[in-house]
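Quick entry between incubations.
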Amino acid sequence: MERDELLSKMTDAVINGLPADAGELARRGLRLGLEPTDIIDRGFVPGIRRAGELWESGDYFLPELVSSAEAMKAAMAVLQPEIEKSGSRNEGRSLARVVIGTVEGDIHDIGKNLVAALLSANGFEVHDLGANVSPERFLDKALEVDADFIGLSTLLTTTMLSQRRFLERLKETGHRSRFKVLVGGAPVTGQWAADIGADGFAENAVAAVGLCRKLLGERP
Amino acid sequence: MSVLIVIKPSGTKIRVREKTLLSDALNKAGLSPGLYCQGRGVCGKCAVEILEGKLPNYASGEKELLGRLGLSDRHRLACRHVAESDLCLRIPESALPGRISVVEFGPEVALPFEPTVKKYAVSAARSEDDVSETDNLFRRLGAASLRVPLDVLRKGPAVRKRSGDLLTAVVAEERDLIDIEPGDTTGRVFGLAFDVGTTTLAAAAVDLATGRVLSRNACLNGQTAYGADVISRINLVLEKPGRAETLRKAVLSDLAGLAETVMSSAGIAGTEVYAAGIAGNTVMSHLLLGLPVESLAVAPFASTFTSLPVLSPSEAGLRFLHPEAPVYIAPNIRSFIGGDTSAGLVASGFVRLKGPALYIDLGTNGEIVLKSGRDFAATSTAAGPAFEGMNISCGMLARTGAICRVEPEGDAFRYLTVDDAPARGLCGTGLIDMAALSLERGLMAPTGAIATAKKTLPLIRGLSLNQKDIRELQLAVGALRTGMRMMLDAHGLRSRELKAIFVAGAFGSRLSIDNSVALGLLPDIPASRFRFLGNASLSGAVALLLSVPARRAIEETARAVRHLSLASQPGFQDVYISSLKFKKWS
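Done. Structure below.
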């Protein structure tokens, strides 16, 4: 009973975006002898999923979503070291690796940061390259960490072309089939993603998580 | 093969070639559908109802978008479909052309009256001695020397022949003799001031002899048919360099039309207009002058010019002016802080305030200037088009029939529209009122979540705000608030210490201070410290003509203002996210 109540409190702490509570609840769970992976899967993950649903229904906006992601991060900061210590499921812990950044010529990175935070809160290993990232840097990093996904963000219609340029570069260097390339940002549409031959497009951070899951063949 | 398109409700008929894009056909009919997303099929503002004729299949994503906007299954996006056969379609009420309301000037500010161009009546008699024609004239004008165009010298004898005792010399800045005229015409010396905004253009005819503004008018910037914001206009040029000329011609033809209107209501001819002043944002002034905008499109967003020398009418494309009229362009401050701001800062008297004080221009791009003692800094913030009603489902510009004020009346609302015409949409000030009232009545949470069962905020029949509309408003308010907060933080100031806030922009005095404060758009300081400037850019363009000292001050101001880049400030994202909630400043 106490266990279930604790797990549901964890879920609530993420839904309500309370990082301090989330961290504390994670520690309490460990003290009670719960498996860290159980705490994540049954306590915190349902919370971040619920926050995503509330976003999709329009009840949540960016501040709520960011707080939920921060609560998730606080919990993970407590739990991750424990998982690594025990070695349990250490390898399989991350869903997939994502290299993400704002394309060359653009410095707007709030949208990209949100996508990175949400992916990370949902168990992806995220390598955020920041803003104004050249095609070479994207590719080098993706090769270095053996990424599954490369995410290209842009806010300006003028810099959308950098997304196309990256895909062309990927083809030229013969690495196209190695990565799934996802594009996003205010001016980007599904049509544009199809036109430039990207593997996917998501309207917002929550949709980006769903898209990555779908492409991995997981429950969205 | 051509097809016939009938456009309701006006019944306008237009014949176009088969496979013409519907939005192009509407443009051709003079009923610009407003391609705010530049025809990418994502804004929905060009949706038309197909009343008769073949209903095309949905384009990708179109059905979802139209559904979200609450439109019927007979609606289609004009930017996505071509005319395959004869069609009868209906455009929405809010897309009908309407008069742009003329934005008022702010309170008069005393600027030293020293017009750029003056006329002097002098004796037309020839000199007794062998002094040259020009030296004779200079002597009579009491000037040592003036620059004189050869054309003026050539017509000297003819002018003297037609003059009685007097002839009139037209002198610009006590330096250039720009014309001589027979007789005494000193009472007829005029200038034209232009505000070149992204969405609207405004013009004023000014009497340079008395300093009075004789007439003014405004119209939609024809470039909006090609894209709503500055970035989409730049993008057009990037895609196809020839488009720069298309955009330039569009705005020049609108300016010529506006000039004609204000000149005719003031009863003056183009040849009597001896000076022009132009203030506009950086991208608008670049496009107007046909200067490269490519570098403004990508980081670090550098402009081609900040300050320009005096131009001639032919260089500026304003051929309706006197051919020797000086054309002054208000200098830009930095990439996205343009001449509209530098000119407005001086014309409004803001530059003379001790401060601490804020100057804000509410528009798609919100400019914020802080003056604190000798510190003078500016920033710009991307508010998006919500204040102009463009990404709002029932939104529209402040044109005829736009709901511009909403006030409580019992449990319901009462509203005012532009020109008192039947309501057809909601403009920015109406949107702010609606949101503030909904917040006050608990119909909307401070997070912006709509609390009604249907998740809409109905205003009148057929007009309501949905959740996405509110989110767009939050982004706009949040961007402005972030800019102000970071500007104050960077100077170690608190909002309560502000002695004055000058509010420029198309909102004018229709903006409710109380409601803006309730949403957090404006800091919570006493209402007496706010001053509405109306179209400060146009006032600034007038100042370029009426006051040489003010024009120098505008040049100096543009150089003196420091630029603060928001995105590079630590904590930018946190401030932005926390500014997205509707709440008063603390």
